Amino acid sequence: MTGRWAPIVCEPGAAGGGATSAEGIHHGSWGTPMTGCGEVSQRPADRLDDVAATVEFLMAVDDLKQVRRQNPIATGRRRERTAEHCWHVAIAALCLHEWAAEEIDLDRALRLAIIHDLPEAAVGDTFVYGPGVSHRFEREQAGLRRLLAGLPTEAANRVHEAWHEYELETSAEGRYIMALDIMLPIFLNFRAGVHSSWRRHNVAAAAVRSRVERVRRTIPALAGLAMQTIDEAVARGLLAGDGSA
Known about the structure:
Mean pLDDT: 86
CATH class: Mainly Alpha
Order of helices and strands: EEEHEEHHHHHHHHH
Strand order of the largest sheet: 1-2-3
CATH topology: Hypothetical protein af1432
Number of helices: 10
Number of strands: 5
Strand content: 5-15%
Low-confidence stretches: 9-41
CATH architecture: Orthogonal Bundle
Distance between the termini: 53 Å
Shape: globular
Radius of gyration: 19 Å
């Protein structure tokens, strides 16, 4: 094996300059270990134990295909799975980047889209309008570390750093994927109608608007459409009106 993985210490505002692992190793973009002279270290020779460890990780994250989110699919016939959601965000990232307020590195954005909900393979989905959301970050960070514990170091670092880039919104791509993650469920819930998670949990329109306002500047046109959709949802009785519980 390439050695026990040590999580990167990531703090808000640290994007672009790399990060330092708990072992004191500096990592450049995407967590690639750097040598003392600033050159990227050579990838270790292929070894069967590393391949086997990677396959075990892939089997673990396969659970994302079974994790049920609160949001429905557009038809309302069933709830969305996390793996489906990540795919949907990736497709949205591919199609909507022209409307982003900042220039987007599409390849980087797609990596974040794929990875952004990976911890749910270990800890499940957290409903954003529910009581568990206050400790979501800590719970998901711990879950991700468990998932990555057996993965070869360089691959684990890449995944860990990418997840933090999304969660802490430390890059244009992180902010872009966060905005899509927040706004796509609005259109799914509206399309699902009476089968929406809004109706099931009596979600207030003000709470949904607040989430859109947080990312409005990232994709202004999509945010505008989301706000119109919220207004129509209130009119149809899918969202509790402002001031309602």
